[in-house]
Amino acid sequence: QVQLVESGGGLVQPGGSLRLSCSASGSTFSNYYMGWYRQAPGKQRDLVAAITSGGSTNYADSVKGRFTISRDNAKNTVYLQMNSLQPEDTAVYYCKAVHLLVPSKIYWGQGTQVTVSS
Q1: How many whole angstroms separate alpha carbon 9 and alpha carbon 112?
Q2: Edge-to-edge strand order for the sheet containing 67-72?
Q3: Of 1, 26, 64, 85, which sees the most CB atoms within 10 A?
Q4: How far apart are CA 112 and CA 35, in angstroms?
Q5: Which residues touch 100 (CB under 8 Å, ≥6 apart)?
Q6: How many angstroms separate the CA atoms of 90 and 39, rounded?
Q7: Closest Cα partner for 5 from 115, 113, 112, 109?
Q8: Contact indicator for 64, 114 with CB cutoff of 8 Å
Q9: How many Å is the maximal CA-CA distance in the chain?
Q10: Strand pairing of 57-59 and 46-51?
Q11: Which residues fall within 8 angstroms of residue 17, CB to CB, at 6 or more apart?
């Protein structure tokens, strides 16, 4: 069992930056493939960025060059640095963990709201 707690969301003006954190507990963090997803009102939950235990990353086209995902296995934490934020980035952002060897073991955080508005 993995418990995920996101933090760092809030209200920011267009062009601003935020850094989200997702702290994991309850299992060996390095055994998990980590991802950030987001869900805007009335829309499906979509992948934003993901990172393997070794640090390989992939991003949604809409955030490439603006967002950076990283992880600190020693601190059991994954981060999402978001720069040049735009109103269309407004959503609830969720952290997801998938076990590397047992992909059916999937865990979600409770989400953190990011609002980009002037």
Answers
A1: 5
A2: 3-7, 18-25, 77-82, 67-72
A3: 85
A4: 14
A5: 31, 32, 33, 53
A6: 9
A7: 109
A8: no
A9: 44
A10: antiparallel
A11: 81, 82, 83, 84, 85
CA distances from 60 to 38, 39, 65 (A): 11, 13, 10
Please state, in angstroms and rounded to a whole number, the distance separating the CA atoms of residues 90 and 113: 8
pLDDT at 72 over 90: yes
Q: Which two tokens stand for residue 22?
A: 């997702």
3-state secondary structure 43-85: CCCEEEEEECCCCCEEECHHHCCCEEEEEECCCCEEEEEECCC
Exposed, middle or buried by CB within 10 Å (0-12, 13-18, 19+), for 115? middle
Residue in 109, 94, 36 with CA at minimum distance from that of residue 66: 36
